[in-house]
Amino acid sequence: NNSVNVISNHTKPVLPDCPLVPPDLNGKISVDMTVYSEKELAAKLPLVKNGGTYRPSSCAPRHKVAIIIPYRNRRTHLSILLNNLHPFLQKQQLDYGIFVTELAPQIDFNKALAMNIGFLEAAKKYGYDCFIFHDVDLIPENDNNMYTCPDNPKHMSVAIDKFDYELPYVKLFGGVTAMRKEQFEAVNGYSNKYFGWGAEDDDMYARIRTVGLAVTRYTSDVSTYRMLPHPPGYKNKNRLRLLETGTDRWKHDGINTIKYEVLTTVRQRLYTYILADIDQDD
Ligand code: UD2
Ligand code: MN
């Protein structure tokens, strides 16, 4: 070949990698509890692209992160979370996208099922390497709490005001958690069977330990959250029986067995909304 290195004119200028530690983090931040309208919110977050994605323009981001929010009938919480989370993630210089996943109204609420679907749909859209599963009502209070995925699944909502900023129990893996794509696939995602409140997070904790991974946490002074008030969820009566049989069920109860249909995907201004249906008789 004539080995002339042609610099074609459409190559983007190579950006320097973003610094390992983002430069302008402040540590403790105050939560803005204002409930803005969608229009006001869109106007105050101009850097967010339609569908709720963003990537830094001055440096090459080190992390591609999908935020998966299981959702039903929590509009005010979502508005407050988006208002606080977008600036927070931009300061951390992440290449991120926010996905809000809801099950069709006739399906009993099932948080883990919604998160499995959110994972599968987000992974189809972009090469995310890190997935943060995020309760809609948890607002981070410290921006050193990096929304990235270390080499073990990370439990991020360690200290919550509702629980007096104490970890309720050491095996808790609910609230806000981070898993690399390959870690989530190694545990076959969440169980699909926990309809109603409770224990789907404990089931995931057991899967993580079964495959030889561990749960890691940042210190509680960094991993602090405000939980927005809400009525208690309707308890799933057979959650404990499901949990007991979890370890011998996990290989055929998760993202490899889930049967769902996406009814609609809407690129809202500040997030991607996914509405899915399942055939509940399976
Ligand atoms: C705890 C866990 C949560 C989950 C739940 C048991 C923490 C901090 N949180 O949450 O992760 O394990 O127990 O299932 O440990 N949701 C809706 N609409 C609803 C109900 C739930 O959108 O009507 C979503 C929403 O994202 C919410 C999440 O599911 O944050 C968990 O439900 P919750 O906040 O009502 O339950 P909570 O606070 O006991
Ligand atoms: Mn809650």
TrEMBL record:
**GO CC terms in record:** Golgi apparatus; membrane
* Principal subcellular localisation of the protein: membrane
Q: Where in the cell is it found?
A: Membrane
Q: How does it sit in the membrane?
A: Single-pass type II membrane protein
Q: In which pathway does it act?
A: Protein modification; protein glycosylation
According to the entry, every stretch annotated as the Galactosyltransferase N-terminal domain falls at: 18-150
Keyword list, A-Z: Glycoprotein, Glycosyltransferase, Membrane, Signal-anchor, Transferase, Transmembrane, Transmembrane helix
The protein depicted here goes by the name Beta-1,4-N-acetylgalactosaminyltransferase bre-4
Q: Taxonomic classification, please?
A: Eukaryota, Metazoa, Spiralia, Lophotrochozoa, Mollusca
Parent-record interval covered = 82 to 363 of 514
